[in-house]
Fold these 2 entries.
Entry 1:
Amino acid sequence: MDYKTLIREKRKEKGISQGKLAGLVQVSQPFIAEIESGRKKPSLDVLMRICTVLEISLFGEERKDE
């Protein structure tokens, strides 16, 4: 699964709109739409903020609380 699909699916799974996600990561809603469509690539900083909000591991591993 590519990053844009993962971001869109996790966002929808958590019930977060593009506008809400944009506000949480301090970018515009159109920029989130462009990331999800693949028209734009986020900077590492923005990608890290998105991953933090959506609880996505940057390394593709699920976190397991022990």
Entry 2:
Amino acid sequence: MVIEEKLAGGASPADIKDTLSKEMLEIGRRYIDGEIYLPKALIASEIFEEILEEFDLHEGDIGKIAIGVVGPQVHEVGKNLVATWLRCVGFKVLDLGVLAPPERFIEVLKKEEVDIIAISARLTPAICAMSQVIRLLEKESLRKEVKVIIGGIAVSKELSREIGADSYASDFMDAVSQCKKLISKNRASESSF
């Protein structure tokens, strides 16, 4: 395999991940520009995740994100794409999977130093669960400790404001951009104390 040859030739795992990440970002750009379609982006993300797993390249240093799909649904394609592209740019991603109850996000936040909670919803009934995550954060006095981004076909920028989320992403590349902005805001507010 090419990666094994590169490692044997002295390339560091970080260099390999950096090269792969640049290629993945190019694939993402081509998807957004309509040059390739979703199946190719999905195949690329699956290959990228397999390489990360095989060579233990998961660690990121930009920030930590807990991501999951809430509500009565098992559709995880969008979540998986977002998680992959977040890893591409250097986030550490904690994947909570599908059917993640609102309480699960709170549990993870209490155990891990999570910077961002990313919630996906494909079906309208899941909006209540998204809102419940934010209410639970408020109830536990954790809301100021974490940024919340929502995405999925059932949500919009207006809804994100309505339920009290910090951001909304229209697709997986927008999620990367929005999460980078949220991390920058977090760092700026931390340095002002």
